[in-house]
Amino acid sequence: QKEVEQDPGPLSVPEGAIVSLNCTYSNSAFQYFMWYRQYSRKGPELLMYTYSSGNKEDGRFTAQVDKSSKYISLFIRDSQPSDSATYLCAMSPGNQFYFGTGTSLTVIP
Amino acid sequence: NAGVTQTPKFQVLKTGQSMTLQCAQDMNHNSMYWYRQDPGMGLRLIYYSASEGTTDKGEVPNGYNVSRLNKREFSLRLESAAPSQTSVYFCASSAQGSWTDTQYFGPGTRLTVL
User: Fold this and answer.
1) Which of A7, A91, A97, A104 to mutate to test binding with chain B, by most B CBs within 10 Å of its CB?
2) Is A43's CB within 8 Å of B99's CB?
3) Min CA distance, B14 vs chain A (Å)?
4) CA B5, CA B70: separation in Å to the nearest integer?
5) Looking at chain B, which residue has its C-alpha nearest residue A100?
6) How big, in percent rounded to 5, are the helix, strand and coil portions of chain B?
């Protein structure tokens, strides 16, 4: 079983939609949770970072962590064509990052 | 400020050939990392260097060697390339040695081994 599971999609939504991206994990030692965005043929860039259960908001993006269910989510409000990318979740127990496989998102104008 | 740069951008090798992937960062970061990204596998850590002069194995180190040449540069060497090493390779850096630090990634090297 992989440490981190993420649905690869692809996910296609109309502009303005609310997008929900999710990851599950099995290791209860994970304490730090991150979301990266990766545009085609580019390196990943950090979007959001949290190390507790609950919600964290940054503009149109909200990261949600539920440690009891070992489940994290990224919500994108008012999605834009520029949000079209692959979104990677990542998590760490403190000594190494473990990445999901990424979900490919396309926002259609 | 270029961030993290990688050379080459693309490379095709024959089985058994060797090559070195170069990585440099201009952010005065202490820690540097090499990952590979494969479809369905996500990003996997090959080696990392918590600080200048130190290197440690990650999740998939077999078939690779690394050199932390100085604080700026961290190279990855394939001594005898195999088709299983066909992948996209990313170098990253972070300010401190903590795994909670933001990692900044380079643009990647796309390697094909025939």
Assistant:
1) A97
2) no
3) 23
4) 15
5) B42
6) 5, 50, 45
Q: Cα dist. A49→A27, A44, B33 in Å?
A: 18, 14, 19
Q: What is the pLDDT tens value at each position of chain B, 114 positions in all? A: 789 999 999 999 999 999 999 999 999 999 999 999 998 888 999 999 998 889 999 999 999 999 998 999 999 999 999 999 999 999 999 998 677 788 999 999 999 999
Q: Are A42 and B107 in contact (CB < 8 Å)?
A: yes
Helix (H) or strand (E) holding A101, with range, is none
Q: Evaluate whether B76 touches B23 at the Cβ level (below 8 Å).
A: yes
DSSP per residue, A71-83? EEEEEESS--GGG
Tell if the CB–CB gap between B105 and A44 is shorter than 8 Å. yes
For B37, nearest residue in chain A (alpha carbons): A101
With tokens 């609310």, the residue in question is A18
Of residues B43, B2, B67, the one with CA closest to residue A6? B43
CA dist B108 and A41 (Å) reads: 8
Enter the DSSP assignment of B101: S
Amino acid identity at A60: R
